[in-house]
Write a structure and sequence with these properties.
alpha/beta; Rossmann fold; Pantoate--beta-alanine Ligase, Chain: A,domain 2; three-stranded antiparallel sheet; 9 strands; about 40% helix; globular; binds pantoate
């Protein structure tokens, strides 16, 4: 694995690889890698000749500066994990390398900006779009891999590639879960032991809601999920929305569309966790 910090060096290397006919897979991350990230890398390895991973904690996507400061940065551990799987290049740019000047671009993501993560984390998706578009320009991959835990982010990235007319296939990969069901996330390592012992109720409740679908309406299911999780003193639901999996618009009836997803954000002390569940097979 070659570690590259300079954007031009990586861009030139990729140009050479592409002209020799090699396919490029890209896994952008903010580090603190877990099995979820490694599954994206494995997926890229299966589908491409070369896999490039980036680690960059992107300041522009944090609407809360404390969250940015707290975000785990454990690059040496990450490198050890990457050596266990096949990763050809690791891109670890500095802040100046990615943002030499202020990036003033705005994007129109329509409804995606005003719902769920868009509504609760103002500016977050603009920051994600700024960094992902820059990374796409540097890495110029054939395929890019994102985890479905960040369900709305996948929709944003798909819209971004359309807006920018990019010839990159966006591949989304299933959520990886801990043994007790907790969706893997870099933020999980920030949880105290006590908090960690309580957060499995989030995924348990989401899975139980699949059964509730048979007897409850959408409004009742939402209410049930929120009440069940909020009963736990460590947890506070920020939102639980049941949406059309394609458009992410709210649905009012189970029969309205076939593909329905439930998306949740829960505050655990000062740590914010998200998860989602498919109400279809
Ligand atoms: O999902 C993430 O880790 C980040 O939002 C991403 C896509 C790497 C952009 O910083």
């Amino acid at each position: 694995m070659k570690v590259v910090e300079n954007r031009n060096e990586l861009n030139n290397t990729v140009a050479d690889l592409r002209s020799s006919g090699r396919s490029i897979g890209f896994v952008p991350t903010m580090g603190a890698l877990h099995e979820g990230h490694l599954s994206l890398i494995e997926c890229s390895n299966r589908e491409n000749d070369i896999t490039i991973v980036s680690i960059f904690v992107n300041p522009t996507q944090f609407n809360d500066s404390e969250d940015y400061k707290r975000y785990p940065r454990i690059i040496q551990d990450d490198i050890k994990k990457l050596k266990r799987v096949k990763c050809d290049f690791l891109f670890t740019p500095s802040k100046d390398e990615m943002y030499p000047d202020e990036d003033k671009r705005e994007f129109d993501f329509g409804n995606l900006e005003s719902i769920m993560e868009g509504a609760h984390r103002p500016g977050h998706f603009r920051g994600v779009a700024l960094i992902v578009s820059k990374l796409f320009e540097i890495v110029n991959p054939h395929r890019a891999y994102f985890g479905e835990k960040d369900f709305q982010q996948v929709a944003i990235i798909n819209r971004l590639t359309k807006l920018l007319n990019l010839d990159i296939k966006i591949v989304s990969c299933p959520i990886m879960r801990e043994k007790d069901g907790l969706a893997m996330s870099s933020r999980n390592m920030l949880l105290s032991t006590e908090q960690r012992d309580n957060v499995s109720i989030i995924s348990e409740t989401l899975f139980d809601s699949l059964q509730k679908k048979k007897i409850l309406s959408i409004a009742e299911t939402k209410e049930w999920v929120i009440r069940k999780i909020n009963e736990n003193p460590f947890l506070e639901v920020e939102y639980f929305e049941i949406v059309d999996s394609e458009t992410l618009n709210s649905v009012n009836e189970w029969s309205q569309v076939v593909k329905i997803t439930g998306c949740i954000a829960v505050q655990v002390g000062n740590i914010r966790l998200i998860d989602n569940i498919r109400f279809y097979s």
